[in-house]
Specification:
Blueprint: H1 11-19, E1 23-29, E2 34-37, H2 39-45, H3 56-61, H4 74-78, E3 85-91, E4 97-108, E5 114-123, H5 127-148, E6 151-155, E7 161-162, H6 165-171, H7 175-180, H8 188-199, E8 208-215, E9 221-232, E10 238-247, H9 252-258, H10 263-272, H11 276-286, H12 290-297, H13 301-307, H14 317-328, E11 331-335, E12 341-345
Antiparallel strand pairs: 1-2, 1-5, 3-4, 4-5, 6-7, 6-10, 8-9, 9-10, 11-12
Length: about 350
């Protein structure tokens, strides 16, 4: 696990590792020279927030001299020359050596002028501590499924499904059986039609949204909504699918409150399915120009133009930044049961 993986972690997991002192973030606004560090970032660097002042220069100075070149220097940062990822050695004032995975993100004006730099650092020195935190997250997710039957799952490129063990317990089937054939949970009279519809989206690698009635181990039959979305990396390579399943009677608000582990991965995958016409529709609902979207998202005007011409890769980070800006302004992207994506304004 490194800092880039944090984008797909649940809020509860992030709060957990912050409590462990394993992660922290910062932000530097260039025009005002305002710099902010999270309390956990001070702890991560071994500094007392009542004494130390947040400063990107100080952060870089605390790194091992041989590793400082992996991060942008202060002068390079304000010019927009930033390395998005790095693994560096930190030397705390106490002399303790820690290893950090660092994710940096530059925000620019519509004209491409650097505006701010933000980042997150994850302490990867003690992989066992991280493993324990991840194990606790998995236990929480399993308990959630036992009580709500809501879960997130993954599908590999080979179409093998990765489900939590509790799913087998709830449905009275073996985990191996449902991992190889998840449709075995669907009631027999609907199984064939549902399987054919779900499998039809794998070759074109498109989004799937459907409803299915599934039998539980206690004999009850519940109707579930199942969402499956293709996942792409930044280079445009297909990485399988991210999925979520939950009972129909649970509202979207309930699902967000439940904070299903790995649900962020599903949301990011859904963002990748947003195309040029969706972005133009969202701007229209807000009465935004391309420049307004560029300003709100910290992207250049040329990047927004490429997004609206479907010229950016499906896994490009710029797409997620544009989506986040639109959501903050009240736009919702809703996956419909027929597989289409609706755009609405709250």
């Amino acid at each position: 696990m490194d800092a880039a993986d944090l984008t797909s972690c649940s809020d509860i997991f992030l709060r957990t590792i912050e409590d462990y002192g394993l992660v922290g973030g910062w932000r530097w606004t260039f025009a005002s020279d305002e710099q902010r560090w999270s309390p956990s970032f001070f702890r991560l660097l071994g500094l007392d927030p009542s004494i130390a002042t947040a400063s990107y220069d100080l952060f870089v100075e605390l790194l091992h001299p041989d590793d400082r070149v992996q991060l942008a220097s202060p002068s390079e940062a304000v010019q927009g020359h930033v390395s998005p990822r790095a693994t560096v050695r930190l030397i705390r004032p106490s002399g303790e050596l820690r290893i950090l995975s660092v994710l940096s993100e530059l925000r620019v004006s519509p004209e491409g002028r650097p505006l701010s730099l933000s980042g997150v650092a994850l302490d990867v020195t003690d992989r066992e501590q991280l493993r324990q935190a991840q194990a606790a997250e998995q236990r929480r997710g399993r308990a959630l499924y036992r009580t709500t039957y809501a879960t997130a799952y993954a599908v590999g490129v080979d179409r093998t499904h990765d489900f939590p063990p509790e799913m087998a317990q709830v449905h009275g089937l073996s985990l191996q059986e449902i991992s190889l054939d998840p449709f075995v949970m669907v009631v027999p009279e609907e199984r064939t039609a549902f399987r054919e519809r779900a499998m039809a989206v794998h070759t074109p690698q498109v989004r799937f949204v459907g409803k299915a009635r599934e039998r539980l181990a206690n004999g009850e039959v519940w109707q579930f909504r199942i969402i499956g979305v293709p996942v792409w990396d930044e280079a445009g390579r297909y990485n399988g699918r991210a999925g979520m399943k939950y009972p129909i009677h649970l509202s979207a608000a309930t699902i967000r409150t439940a904070d299903i582990p790995a649900s962020r991965r599903v949301r990011r995958a859904l963002d990748q399915t947003v195309r040029a016409d969706h972005l133009r529709a969202a701007r229209g609902l807000l009465d935004w120009s391309r420049g307004t979207l560029a300003q709100a998202s910290g992207l250049s005007l040329s990047t927004v133009r490429r997004l609206e011409e479907d010229a950016e890769g499906q896994g490009a980070r710029s797409r997620h930044k544009a989506m986040d800006a639109l959501r903050r302004a009240g736009i919702r992207f809703i996956a419909m049961d027929d597989g289409t994506l609706a755009v609405a304004k709250t």
